[in-house]
């Protein structure tokens, strides 16, 4: 299954998680491409069977700004033939009602365009560095669902 890890990252934490997911998937036998939303157009993403989409959350529940622009460009994209998974980052120093809201934003976007979400979202609160096991466990479970 042709797999894309698509992400937005300003400070590098979301890219760190994307790389950990990619490395874990590769160790399990699932090869994937990884791209920032500023480099990969919605049309290019359609070439993939599986999209793993990630974003940090800023302020009161906003996805990273390049993610928001990408979602707007892709508002009419049909993803009904695609499988998908989501990872979101946040920090509870912001409003708890909107912490890690990016995971909800991305999930809603994908579902509303017909994608099949095959795994629950990975939600990372605060720095992802000490949460490596959580990330690798999630990616291993995702690999198993991709190939089941």
Mean pLDDT level: 94
SSE series? EHEHEEHEHEEH
Number of strands: 7
Q: What's the overall geometry?
A: globular
Number of helices: 5
Helix content range of the residues, please? Answer: 25-40%
CATH homologous superfamily? Flavodoxin domain
Q: Mind describing the biggest β-sheet?
A: 7 strands, mixed
CATH topology group: Rossmann fold
Using the coordinates above, name the CATH class: Alpha Beta
The radius of gyration is 14 Å
* Cα separation of the termini: 12 Å
Share of β-strand residues: 15-25%
Could you say which structural class the secondary elements and strand pairing correspond to? Answer: alpha/beta
User: How many structural domains in the coordinates?
Assistant: 1
- Spans of at least 5 consecutive residues whose pLDDT stays below 50 are none
> In the CATH classification, which architecture applies?
3-Layer(aba) Sandwich
Give the helix/strand layout.
Elements: E1 3-7, H1 13-28, E2 32-36, H2 42-45, E3 50-58, E4 62-63, H3 65-73, E5 83-90, H4 101-112, E6 116-117, E7 122-125, H5 132-146
Parallel strand pairs: 1-2, 1-3, 3-5, 5-6, 5-7
Antiparallel strand pairs: 3-4
Helix pairs in contact: 1-5
